[in-house]
Amino acid sequence: MKLQGVNEFNIFVAIFCVLTFQTLFVCSKPGPVTLPTVTNVTTASIFLCWVAPLGGNVSYGVNLSNSGQTRQLLTDQTCLNVTNLNSSTSYSFTVFAVAGDNITVSDAVTITAFTKPGPVTSPTVTNVTTASIFLCWVAPLGGNVSYGVNLSNSGQTQQLLTNQTCLNVTNLNSATSYSFTVFAVAGDNITVSDAVTITAFTKPGPVTSPTVTNVTTASIFLCWVAPLGGNVSYGVNLSNSGQTQQLLTNQTCLNVTNLNSATSYSFTVFAVAGDNITVSDAVTITAFTKPGPVTSPTVTNVTTTSIFLCWVAPLGGNVSYGVNFSNSGQTQQLLTNHTCINVTNLNSATSYSFIVFVVAGDNTTVSDSTTITAFTKPGPVTSPTVANVTTTSIFLCWIAPLGGNVSYGVNFSNSGQTQQLLTNQTCLNVTNLNSATSYSFTVFAVAGDNTTVSDSATITAFTKPGPVTSPTAVNVTTTSIFLCWVTPLGGNVSYGVNFSNSGQTQQLLTNHTCLNVTNLNSATSYSFTVFAVAGDNTTVSDSATITAFTRPGPVTSPAVTNVTTTSIFLCWVAPLGGNVSYGVNFSNSGQAQQLLTNQTCINVTNLNSATSYSFTVFAVAGDNITVSDSTTITAFTRPGPVTSPNVTNVTTTSIFLCWVTPLGGNVSYGVNFSNSGQAQQLLTNHTCLNVTNLNSATSYSFTVFAVAGDNTTVSDSTTITAFTKPGPVTSPTVTNVTTTSIFLCWVAPLGGNVSYGVNFSNSGQTQQLLTNHTCINVTNLNSTTSYSFTVFAVAGDNTTVSDSTTITAFTKPGPVTSPTAVNVTTTSIFLCWVAPLVGNVSYGVNFSNSGQAQQLLTNHTCLNVTNLNSATSYSFTVFAVAGDNTTVSDSTTNTAFTKPGTVTSPTAVNVTTTSIFLCWVAPLGGNVSYGVNFSNSGRTQQILTNHTCINVTNLNSATSYSFTVFAVAGDNTTVSDSATITAFTKPGPVTSPTVTNVTTTSIFLCWVAPLGGNVSYGVNFSNSGRTQQLLTNHTCLNVTNLNSATSYSFTVFAVAGDNITVSDSTTITAFTKPGPVTSPTAVSVTPTSIFLCWVAPLGGNVSYGVNFSNSGQTQQLLTNHTCLNVTSLNSATSYSFTVFAVAGDNITVSDSTTITAFTKPDTIRWLNPTDVTTTSILLSWTAPQKFSDSYKIKIMNNGIVFLTKETSLNVTELLPGTSYTFSIAGIAADNKTEGDPIFITDCTNTAAVINATCVGPNYNAVLNITWQPPSVPYTRVYINNYTVYSPATSYVIGGLNYFTTYTITLINTGCGGNSTPVVLNCQTGITSPPDLSNVVLVLITPSTTSQTITFTFKPFSSSNGPVLHYAIIVTSNTANEIPDKSVLINTYNDYTNGQTDTYVATIIDVKSVNPAELSVVIGDGNVYNAYVNGPLDSTKSYKIAIAGFTELNLSAGSRASTGALKLTL
């Protein structure tokens, strides 16, 4: 019997009362069951028990209901395990007893119980801080649950409860391991699920104060302060240039090694909790490694004030360098980006210590330093001098250089050999030298390091030569003595010879050891002192002396003074020198005679007439041994005189003279010419002679005579007289010029006395004047006219004239007239005049003041003389200038004053109502007095003063006066430009200031005007010490741009028409209106309150008033704050809030600002999901007690929002099998103000898998199941009896039979339960045929003539797949057992070729038929691809094997290669 209501549970119960055939049995009502209890609860079952009622046998009915749905169960027992329940669901169990008639039931007893919730799954920690862990989990399937979370640490446990699937657990200790045990709690708050535990660490606190305490070139020692909280380890990420490494440590310090030097590293330090996963926020510090030290510091260039220092850069990052250099405890520092630096401004010859260090990119981290010490170069020694010299030593001194202490080196060299001496003194005696030798001494200063040397100073000096020896006179003449001597030992020398006579000494120099001393007096005794001179021509040896006579001089000028035919009277001139006597040797035709005399004349008689005699005369010195050279003269008798002398050509310096030769023997001629008693003689062999070098314009007398063969004896003479041509006059000059005359002078020519001719011309007309003077006054000329004057000299014969000389000159212009000062300024006078009569002229103007004169030139009759001093008297002298720019007229003078400079800066220094005290700055220039014109309303008065200030009185008050001030020059006529100033009198004060209108930025101020003239007004207004000023022409002013709610002090004063002169002021104080508050905002809203805030207005301090109203009722609140919580309001109600600011006077208020806000609606109730599909959830709820205008539903998973005015909403387009959390809140009428939301979580139904397929591969008895999950995450898939968990999308079912069809069912399960099943029909693959125990081969014996074998066999089993091909294998090796698969490639041809004894005869293809028996003929010749079924050999025995194929693969050669097969023999 199948009972209604239990179909789903498939429980069959049969209950019978005792019946008899055709008899009706009536049962009484059973008593009720008692004490129903629930003793075992699971997620899907409740074990229910009760106490049986008293009475007969009964059975029991149990009605269980949930959410209005009821089912009934029947049982004979007093306990019933109710299964297939939903987890975490409240069930009502109604138990009743059923009498034996199965109709009569007892009263029911009801008990309610919850099924156990399913366990939460996938607990995860999604956000961890130092004091909190955000814990989430997947809700269990089933009814609504809340959750409990037990968290424990170190044996202490706390419990937290929540309705959400996430919980932020706070107030935890940092870096601490917590165990979280999460369980679901059913709606009775008693029934709980199995718990799921997850362990997580809180985030460690960040490390603090990371510091770098020790830095090397390859390491940085990093320390930090450990965070508060649990035990932690630490991670350090270090990075440089984009590359990052991580180091781990348990300590709070870490030495990070293997770093690059001088490199910036970023260290990020974080704490790691005990799980080695959870890390703190990181703290970063950047540090540079220490640069490597510089190496090889060197000094490459040293001067007296600088040292050029270089070094080798260290390996590593980019660095700069520091150089500390010190001397005597004072240290300076230089920085550079280069590996060399020139350290300047040093002291010379001073030791400096240089400490070089490398600076990393942070300009802080420095390397170990490297030190080098160097001296600056000493300054050079100066003024080296040689103070004492001998033949073997030189005493050398010099001046020490400025700077540090130095010693000295002296290099001295000669002929390429150099020696060095060192000394601490500034003098040194250099010894062991060679005499008369040039030594180069190079002196240099040596610094304290004995290495650094200064620039050298060089001096050259010679040692003293040794004395000469053995001086001798080896050759003597009248004027010379040839002197020789022996050279001294030592260097090359020259020699000096001092020779003296009668106390007078002369000196000669020579490079030789012999010297011819000349220019001596003859016949004179000389003392010779010889000494050696070194190469410097200064250093000399000791001297040696010798005495010798010169030879007498030869007699000179032997002359024959009287010659007759028989005698010659011979005279000569005694030689210069000492006293001598004379010898005369005379000879003719080889016969000689000698005469001696003490006289310088001798008459040699008894001679032959007209005969040539040779006379040799010599002097004899006082020693009567030394004789002079002899002098010889030859004399002839006289010849006859010449005739007819004449002059044929005359110049200024020559006369050409000719004559007739005399009768007789050969002669030459002498011409004596004389002028003024001076005579000269010329000789010639011709009868004409050009006498030159004569004086011009001079009369010369020429005496001509014949000269005998001795060129001495002359005939009687003949005389002629002639004048030379005069020389031209020179330097003609004009010395005095008038308007009608020019006084002309010139320089007389050299030569004789002359007179002069003057030709003068103008415009082609020439006149001549004659004069004996070198000046002439040419008169009757035109003024300002150019004349040409030609001047020539005339010789004494009045016939011979010189070449002419020309000069041009102008006559003097006439004077200018009427000079006047036409225009005068402070710095100029425009001067004009009347031009002179006749001739073109230019003009010169000399102007002077106080004795200083200047000159200006012009071509015009007016000139503007500028750059003058103002108010100054100037004298102007004007003159005309002729065309030669030299000749000037008489001058005309005029005196004028320059205009005074304008007075400046006129100022009204003191103003009253009736006076103005006026001052000004005096102009530059001469002394001036002043005039002041002052006027008002067209009336002008004048005051004069010598001062630069004047008090103008008796003025009208509040009246504008114009003051014109001018300077007056010393002539009391010339006045300056005027300077004008206008000034007002002071107005009276304003009265009765009042404030009539006030805004936030303005105050409208009025007052009463003062009595008096027209005025404007100034208003100074101030706040907090800052003052501004406004001006107006009215007695009211709107003062704007003020700060709101601010107290201002207004000071009002009247301003005269000049906008400067002001009255006494009057003051009033007023507040500006506060600015309106802005941005009023309902910051926080509840159903009964609105927390209102606003932005304070700009300006002064204010308080606030808030008027709020609803339905016409208004209340007011006051506050000093910009926020106010308005309470006791109605929910979901619109309120209008009017906010205004109140100024500090508590009277002045701002414009108000209004905002309208709704209070929050009340929270809705009873939210339930009432209909769920795979893509939708229907939500229903109960409206709040007070009205909500609409509702806002938000999907918390994705933030999508829905609005509705209904109390239900079907949320569609959801993802299947997905847990959704919905929030629902009421919305006020402004469609903006939301009530507090309530939340519900539910799952959409799970969707089935898609694209499910199954494949049975060959050779493996499995099914490969694949599918694609639905478009949402899923948890697991049920495949028949197998469960596959996400994220797998395939599964292999093994242990199956080959070539078999199976039904596969796939059910997806997830948050929304089980999906509808997906059913697949799948077939497994094939493999090799099974063992062939049932194959029977039947052979038909062939005839003896047959070459074939025929047999039959049953097909192989198809349990592993259909056998589609059979290979018939033949072997002649009858000893073979079943062959292996390798024989399948052998063919009949291979067999007949002897390559194999086993081959495939043929292949049978049976895939299109399914015979019960197969017949085979071997040897019938048929062909299957590469296989030929060739004839058998009747002489052989054969074995036959059969291979069955479920799959056959043929190679490229059409032979069997692979496949699924089984062989049998």
Task: Characterize this entry briefly.
The protein is mainly beta and 1465 residues long. Helix content is 0%, strand content 52%.
Structure explained in plain terms:
The chain is mostly beta strands and 1465 residues long. The chain contains one helix and 115 strands. Strands 101, 102, 104, 105 and 106 form a five-stranded antiparallel sheet that branches. It has a four-stranded antiparallel sheet with strand order 4-3-6-7, with no helix packed on it. Strand 1 and strand 2 form a beta hairpin. The longest helix has 5 residues, at 1388-1392. The protein is elongated, with a radius of gyration of 76 Å. The two termini are 63 Å apart.
Strand tally is 115
* Parts with pLDDT < 50 across at least 5 consecutive residues: 1-26, 1340-1345
Q: Main β-sheet: number of strands, strand sense, barrel status? A: 5 strands, antiparallel
How much helix is in the residues?
Answer: under 10%
Span of the ends, CA to CA: 63 Å
- The number of helical elements comes to 1
Classification by helices and strands: mainly beta
Shape: elongated
Rg on CA atoms, Å: 76 Å
- The overall pLDDT, averaged over residues, is 85
Break the fold down into its secondary structure elements and pairings.
Layout: E1 34-41, E2 46-51, E3 59-66, E4 69-75, E5 79-82, E6 90-98, E7 109-114, E8 121-128, E9 133-138, E10 146-153, E11 156-162, E12 166-169, E13 177-185, E14 196-201, E15 208-215, E16 220-225, E17 233-240, E18 243-249, E19 253-256, E20 264-272, E21 283-288, E22 295-302, E23 307-312, E24 320-327, E25 330-336, E26 340-343, E27 351-359, E28 370-375, E29 382-389, E30 394-399, E31 407-414, E32 417-423, E33 427-430, E34 438-446, E35 457-462, E36 469-476, E37 481-486, E38 494-501, E39 504-510, E40 514-517, E41 525-533, E42 544-549, E43 556-563, E44 568-573, E45 581-588, E46 591-597, E47 601-604, E48 613-620, E49 631-635, E50 643-650, E51 655-660, E52 668-675, E53 678-684, E54 688-691, E55 699-707, E56 718-723, E57 730-737, E58 742-747, E59 755-762, E60 765-771, E61 775-778, E62 786-794, E63 805-810, E64 817-824, E65 829-834, E66 842-849, E67 852-858, E68 862-865, E69 873-881, E70 892-897, E71 904-911, E72 916-921, E73 929-936, E74 939-945, E75 949-952, E76 960-968, E77 979-984, E78 991-998, E79 1003-1008, E80 1016-1023, ...
Antiparallel strand pairs: 1-2, 2-5, 3-4, 3-6, 6-7, 8-9, 9-12, 10-11, 10-13, 13-14, 15-16, 16-19, 17-18, 17-20, 20-21, 22-23, 23-26, 24-25, 24-27, 27-28, 29-30, 30-33, 31-32, 31-34, 34-35, 36-37, 37-40, 38-39, 38-41, 41-42, 43-44, 44-47, 45-46, 45-48, 48-49, 50-51, 51-54, 52-53, 52-55, 55-56, ...
